[in-house]
């Protein structure tokens, strides 16, 4: 598990090489505001080797957050994260490791008949019932989340993870009511609260694509205040003093800025609607920005008016710094599947992000 002593020690080792606000508070300690993403790439041995090298280099260069998920690259991403942690000259206590559960994962490679594989592996074994599924491949019952957490720990070769996300819960809205999805989340949070008390996770979160950055009338909408209320109820039900909801992950970049521009969440104290990022700030939830480079499309160019306001030697660095500049964003994830991109991504943290006023001016 990442610790205060371990992460602050990491910051002391690398902090002088980066801009003043590069390391930010997260959980019990601090974390780099550039994180390693592991979503993209084919499930091949060649890609595994590239990821293994890239992640180890990033960890040894000043990045101490790695984000993955059990379904990424058919479980291969989790496995190479564990291997890279072994390879890097960094203590486990210095690194924040986050993974996710929700989608039914393949094993090593896409099967010839995906539906038949999922039925035999998950439904026929009793791990999930047909009624638990949404879109044929997503579940978030307590038993399923717990089984996936166990498998993730095995894949990673770790005794614990620092943040365990419920992955894209809005997928369940395709199969059931919004209230039923909130009930599912609360039940899942209760199970994760128990695993937090046991020391298997440092905390938990919700990783989304649409849920928190769309208007209330959108089919994929979920309310951040309601999700927080369900976490509080889950903690109370297991006798915990405080809830373990640490973080929200959502897409945020120059061309997908809805987390700042869409006011769909009721502020906890002043009775107004605010954006996902403003709400998270108000209730002390960390925001982890995904799709920072829009899956690579922003690595070549940014909209000129915004590009001119940002610091960085390359478009990719300026795109990462746009996400790091948003008030409320703790970490901006950058895909790290190629060793050639690691120095560039890491070096984005040597530039100061925009101040709050300058960032707000971009949207005026």
Automatic annotation (TrEMBL):
Domain of life: Archaea
Domain NADP-dependent oxidoreductase: 35-212
Pfam families: Aldo_ket_red (PF00248)
CDD domains, A to Z: AKR_unchar (cd19099)
InterPro entries: AKR2_Oxidoreductase (IPR053135), NAD(P)_OxRdtase_dom_sf (IPR036812), NADP_OxRdtase_dom (IPR023210)
Protein name per its UniProtKB record: Oxidoreductase
Originating organism: Halobellus salinus
């Amino acid at each position: 598990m990442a610790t205060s002593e371990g992460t602050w020690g990491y910051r002391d080792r690398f902090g002088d090489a980066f801009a003043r606000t590069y390391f930010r508070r997260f959980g019990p300690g601090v974390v780099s505001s550039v994180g390693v993403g592991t979503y993209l790439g084919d499930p091949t041995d060649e890609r595994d080797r590239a990821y293994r090298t890239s992640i180890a280099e990033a960890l040894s260069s000043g990045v101490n957050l790695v984000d993955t998920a059990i379904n990424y690259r058919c479980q291969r991403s989790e496995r190479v994260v564990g291997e890279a942690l072994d390879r890097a000259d960094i203590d486990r206590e210095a690194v924040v490791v986050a993974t996710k559960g929700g989608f039914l994962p393949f094993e090593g490679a896409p099967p010839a008949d995906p539906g038949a594989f999922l039925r035999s592996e998950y439904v026929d074994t009793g791990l999930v019932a047909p009624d638990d599924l949404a879109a044929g491949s997503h579940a978030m019952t307590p038993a399923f989340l717990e089984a996936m957490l166990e498998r993730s720990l095995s894949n990673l070769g770790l005794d614990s993870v620092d943040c365990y996300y419920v992955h894209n819960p809005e997928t369940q809205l395709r199969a059931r009511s919004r209230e039923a999805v909130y009930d599912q989340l609360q039940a899942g949070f209760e199970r994760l609260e128990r695993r937090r008390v046991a020391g298997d996770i440092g905390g938990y979160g919700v990783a989304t694509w649409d849920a928190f950055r769309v208007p209330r009338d959108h089919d994929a909408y979920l309310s951040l205040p309601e999700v927080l209320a369900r976490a509080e109820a889950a903690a109370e039900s297991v006798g915990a003093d405080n809830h373990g909801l640490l973080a929200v992950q959502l897409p945020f970049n120059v061309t997908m800025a809805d987390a700042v521009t869409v006011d769909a969440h009721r502020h906890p104290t002043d009775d107004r609607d605010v954006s996902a990022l403003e709400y998270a700030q108000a209730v002390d939830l960390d925001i982890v920005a995904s799709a920072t480079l829009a899956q690579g499309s922003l690595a070549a160019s940014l909209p000129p008016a915004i590009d001119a306001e940002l610091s960085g030697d390359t478009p990719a660095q300026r795109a990462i710094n746009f996400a790091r500049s948003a008030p409320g964003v703790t970490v901006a994830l950058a895909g790290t599947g190629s060793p050639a991109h690691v120095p560039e991504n890491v070096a984005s943290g040597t530039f100061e992000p925009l101040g709050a006023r300058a960032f707000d001016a971009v949207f005026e």
